[in-house]
Amino acid sequence: MPVTLVVGCQWGDEGKAKIIDYLARGADYVVRFQGGANAGHTVVADGERFAFHLVPSGILYPHVVCILGGGMVIDPIALAEEIETIVERGIDVDRRVFVSEQAHVVFPYHVEMDRGSETRLGASAIGSTGKGITPAYVDKVGRRGVRMGDLVRPRAELVELFSEKIRENNKHLRRLGVRPLSVKKTVETLLGAMKTIQPLITDTRIIVWSGLEDRKKILCEGAQGALLDVDHGTYPYVTSSSATVGGAVAGAGVPPSSIESVIGIFKAYCTRVGNGPFPTEERGKLGEKLREVGGEYGTTTGRPRRCGWFDGVAGRTVVKLNGITEIALTKLDVLDSFERIKVCGAYRCGSRRYQYFPTTVRALERCKPEYETLDGWNEKVNSDGRMELPPTAVAYVTHLEELVGCKIRLISLGPDRRAVIERA
Predict the structure, then answer these.
(1) Whole-number pLDDT of residue 284
(2) What does DSSP assign to residue 189?
(3) Which end of the chain is less packed: N or C, by CB atoms within 10 Å?
């Protein structure tokens, strides 16, 4: 069955939106399967820049149906604002955006809890985006959450539901030392969002399953990256959901047998936002150069990303973990002006040599990268629309393939949707 999964293979920010947008032209459905408004997907189409946070990137193609899957946590206020912005830019969303009844709701008190918790943690903070994602997933797992399907009810019942939840959680906010929310104002804001959101809420499983039966092409997109996965990432410096293939199956509602291919997205170097170990981080001038040339600032928060060299240990692990069938490599053009480029092929920790990513942060923090240094190409790989890889750039790509054990089929050479090389 024709399901393609797109998985981020580093700490997020790999340029998934660009690749999803490129692939979506041949898709019928694009399904987002986890995360929430903490993700930022940027697409440049015909010179216009679009930043998406909840709506799948495929919305720019008029024929594509976009689904916010059951594995997501959705801020209805943020979603309503995003949809309104999309419509203002001339994009038709009618019968093209659907929200799963099973997705959980991010309330304003979740946002305040998130920010308050990070403030209390101080130097030990995780580096959250402050969008309420963790508290919402905590409520989900604690079986006290509210799902989007619970919001399809008359206004009077919504007022009662919202008021009860806000009053109950204001107690938690006080314990965190955070100012409680105004019940009246918060309820009014939520009710305003419902005018946009309620008509979109449905059993999206039926849409997906019907598409499978009709042999429609389904593209599943995730947020963040596999190294931020709550089970397989650098715990506790991770996101609160599963950003791997397993999360896609559960969050999108697709059977494992339907998956035809798994496309892993790697950046040609590595970046990370927030705290947590980053073995190949470059803290000096080269790291600053990567940040400035690559425009490495968060789409959602604007925070500068930590930058470093490609990590073959992490890449090799993620390819195995997700059963990656092919790779899309992004931002290769950022390395155009580097005379020498480092690549990590293994970690060294005392007498032990790691070929695969350690499972504990304690071990990872003691690891030192073993680097190989490759020649750069010192020329533009994307010049006036003419995309051509010089021999040293081809050698770099081939080396990465050998390191992680998977073929690189797509190479992105800039933000524009047309700046992609397809390889046999």
Answers:
(1) 92
(2) H
(3) C
Quote the CA–CA distance of 418 and 232 in Å, as a whole number. Answer: 33
Same domain, 272 and 172: no
Do 186 and 128 belong to one domain?
A: yes
- Residue 127, pLDDT above cutoff 70: no
User: In this structure, what token pair is assigned to residue 339?
Assistant: 């005379």
Structure tokens at 14: 């790999």
In this structure, the answer to whether residues 255 and 383 fall within a common structural domain is: no
Q: Do residues 68 and 120 both lie within one domain?
A: no
Among residues 198, 213, 228, the one where a domain terminates is 198
- Reported as a single tens digit per residue, the pLDDT across 30-53 is 999 999 998 777 787 777 888 889
Domain containing 45 equals: 3-101+200-263
Where are any strands of DSSP class E within 299-414?
306-308, 310-311, 326-330, 340-349, 352-354, 368-375, 382-383, 386-387, 408-412
Q: Comparing 83-97, 106-120, 154-168, which segment has the lowest mean pLDDT?
A: 106-120
Contacts from 392-397 at CB under 8 Å and sequence distance 24+?
393/332, 396/268, 396/332, 396/335, 396/341, 396/343, 397/329, 397/332
Q: What is the mean pLDDT of the chain?
A: 93
Q: Which residues are catalytically annotated? A: 13, 41
* Domain-terminating residue out of 263, 278, 299: 263
Q: Are 186 and 163 in contact (CB under 8 A)?
A: no
Kindly state whether residues 88 and 216 are assigned to the same domain.
Answer: yes
Question: What confidence tens digit (pLDDT) does each residue in 205-228 have?
Answer: 999 999 999 999 999 999 999 999
Is 69 within 8 Å of 33 (Cβ atoms)?
Answer: yes
**Model pTM?**
0.92
